[in-house]
Structure of Permease:
Amino acid sequence: MTGVMVLPFTYALAPLPDNAPMQSIILAQIAQTLEFSALTSFFGLLLAQRIGFGAPILKGITGGEKQKGYLNSILGSSVIWGILGGVLVVLLASCSGICPLN
């Protein structure tokens, strides 16, 4: 979903020629994002246990266990870091003159 949401920002950074087939470009961008996400997720989950990381929420979902306590413990910090990251992107984009909010 994030790959689709970042498309307007991507096109603001690198405008397309006037005769570019927008539908084909959007479909190719979505396909590329899905492929990259699938590959990185697969290898990330494969290698996570070897280096001591885990995916307790995913493991709980696939194993039928309840992970509500763990999810609640990280939810607040995840929301805060997500908001701070979004604000940082907008600030950096506005400093460089490519922010769509200007």
Notes: The radius of gyration is 18 Å.
